[in-house]
Amino acid sequence: MLEHIKTKNTDIPVIIISGHANIEMAINSLRSGAFEFIQKPFDKERLLNFVKRAVENINLKKENKSLSNKLFHSFKIIGNNPFLFQLKLRLEEHHEPLMVGRDNFFALKTQARYILLAYFF
Predict the structure, then answer these.
(1) Containing domain of residue 19, as a range?
(2) Into how many domains does the chain fold?
(3) How confident is the model at residue 53 (pLDDT cuts 50, 70, 90)?
(4) What is the value of pTM for the model shown?
(5) Can you name the residues that pair with 16 across neighbouring β-strands?
(6) Which of these, 17, 14, 48, 20, lies nearest to 34 by C-alpha position?
(7) Is 114:102 a contact under the CB 8 Å cutoff?
């Protein structure tokens, strides 16, 4: 069941509850992607704590994806360098995140040329 859920959506936290479990089963479940493993009988507060942590976990993953998308899909190239301008156009065309940076202008210009030649042509 766990493997089926994880193939549909890896971000869903799965809490496994079992009345006939052993340590090996718990370890295998956690290695297979279970968020938590609880053996019956269990304390209600313990289960609620796991559910709360699971909800926080999925919210953090959503926020992380959102921030990553904002970071990699918003860039601004400052200056009149034709090589960097061409690079920006190509990146917008292919929707690919890429970070370029060097200490001096010549290295940046050379790096932009190689990226355009190797990556897009």
Answers:
(1) 2-71
(2) 2
(3) very high
(4) 0.54
(5) 37
(6) 14
(7) no
